């Protein structure tokens, strides 16, 4: 691939453009908002100049509702040898394209499973897709050259290609992406009118659950509007569990011992099923989730503190597998939680204490 055209210079389009430009591909940029193109170009994502002829690959980074129109328009103008979209929904746009008589041999629907709570070109990074799944949904009609161009794009972005059926993809993202967004927003909405004294007690758990609730509502309305059925199916199943959990909690308040026992069993059931489901979430490098030991270290909010911890861990010969930071409310301090392979915690604890770090007992 020598040339590419990115249509839509938001977070995903600009990130793909930055990755391609960094690897020597000449990237041309288009967007209905000229200021987005100027920003992306200033970041080094490519040029606002129109290509002199058809490019190798056109990447359409537009909302799902506009994919069919954008692909059809680009094909009509002969802008590229191959066309892909990077929308988060795949089945509906393909059916629209087929109904419009689009050339499906030169088109391939894709979806990089990566993003951020922020949107727009200023949120883009060249490494956004590194190590992340990038779904490709070819059909028997897909031209081999187009599939190869898409695979080259995925490789240049250092993502991991995953082949899926379009409708199976939509059911999967309803479960692992779209429903979590709504549930995060539902929990965060409880905080909107909560008493200030309650909000001040927020810890890492509520921060984890509500992180993606900061996402752009307009963008998510477009995404959910393109995949409403599968998301509603998952939410209906969650609603069934919620109703059962509410009944179990009410039973725990009962004076009847038998009802309380049933309530305990109901709560245990949902918690155990949660444990089982969580254990299936892929861990490091896509492998089965590892069971890590944790060392919690008190740190002050000063530049260089994390670097010192990592350097001291490296000097002790311990690899940090994951890290989380729990900030202290109203203080310039917090705890950094270091996740380690089993057996490494005593070694690191001793080494850090020797270097003056305060370790929180687990």
UniProtKB/TrEMBL annotation:
Keyword Flavoprotein among UniProt keywords: no
Superkingdom of origin organism: Bacteria
SUPFAM superfamilies: 6-phosphogluconate dehydrogenase C-terminal domain-like (SSF48179), ACT-like (SSF55021), NAD(P)-binding Rossmann-fold domains (SSF51735)
Transmembrane segments: none
Pfam families listed in its UniProt record: PDH_C, PDH_N
Biochemical pathway: Amino-acid biosynthesis
Enzyme class label: oxidoreductase
InterPro entries reported in the protein's UniProt record: 6-PGluconate_DH-like_C_sf, ACT-like_dom_sf, NAD(P)-bd_dom_sf, PDH_C, PDH_N, Preph/Arog_dehydrog, Prephen_DH
Keywords on record: Amino-acid biosynthesis, Aromatic amino acid biosynthesis, Oxidoreductase
Domain named Prephenate/arogenate dehydrogenase: residues: 2-289
Xref: PROSITE patterns: PDH_ADH
Gene3D superfamilies: 6-phosphogluconate dehydrogenase C-terminal like domain, NAD(P)-binding Rossmann-like Domain
KW Amino-acid biosynthesis (keyword) present: yes
EC number, as in UniProt: 1.3.1.12
Gene Ontology MF: a single term: prephenate dehydrogenase (NAD+) activity
Similarity annotation: Belongs to the prephenate/arogenate dehydrogenase family.
UniProt cross-references to NCBIfam families, sorted A to Z: PRK06545.2-1, PRK06545.2-3, PRK06545.2-4
Name of the protein described by the UniProt record: Prephenate dehydrogenase
Organism name: Streptomyces gossypii
């Amino acid at each position: 691939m020598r040339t590419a055209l990115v249509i839509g210079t938001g977070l995903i389009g600009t990130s793909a453009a930055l990755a391609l430009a960094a690897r020597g591909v000449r990237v041309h940029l288009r967007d209905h908002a000229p200021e987005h193109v100027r920003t992306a170009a200033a970041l080094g994502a490519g040029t606002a100049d129109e290509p002199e002829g058809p490019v190798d690959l056109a990447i359409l980074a537009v909302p799902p509702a506009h994919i069919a129109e954008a692909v059809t328009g680009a094909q009509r103008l002969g802008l590229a040898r191959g066309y892909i979209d990077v929308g988060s929904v795949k089945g509906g746009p393909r059916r629209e394209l087929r109904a419009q008589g689009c050339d499906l041999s030169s088109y391939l629907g894709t979806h990089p499973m990566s993003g951020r709570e922020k949107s727009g070109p200023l949120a883009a990074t060249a490494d956004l897709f590194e190590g992340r799944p990038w779904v490709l949904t070819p059909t028997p009609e897909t031209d081999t050259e187009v599939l190869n161009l898409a695979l080259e794009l995925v490789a240049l972005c250092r993502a991991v290609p995953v082949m899926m059926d379009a409708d199976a993809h939509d059911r999967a993202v309803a479960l692992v992406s779209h429903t979590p967004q709504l549930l995060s927003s539902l929990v965060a909405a409880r905080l909107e009118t909560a008493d200030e004294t309650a909000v001040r007690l927020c810890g890492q758990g509520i921060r984890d659950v509500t992180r993606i609730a900061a996402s752009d509502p307009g963008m998510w309305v477009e995404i959910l509007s393109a995949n409403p059925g599968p998301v509603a199916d998952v939410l209906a199943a969650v609603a069934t569990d919620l109703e059962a959990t509410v009944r179990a909690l009410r039973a725990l308040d009962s004076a009847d011992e038998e009802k309380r026992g049933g309530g305990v069993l109901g709560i245990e059931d949902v918690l155990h099923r949660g444990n089982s489901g969580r254990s299936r979430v892929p861990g490091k490098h896509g492998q089965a989730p590892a069971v890590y030991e944790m060392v919690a270290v008190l740190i002050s909010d000063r530049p260089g503190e994390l670097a010192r911890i990592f350097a001291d861990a490296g000097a002790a010969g311990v690899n940090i597998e994951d890290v989380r930071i729990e900030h202290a409310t109203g203080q310039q301090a917090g705890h950094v939680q270091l996740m380690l392979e089993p057996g490494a915690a005593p070694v690191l604890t001793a080494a850090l204490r020797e270097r003056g770090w305060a370790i929180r007992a687990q």
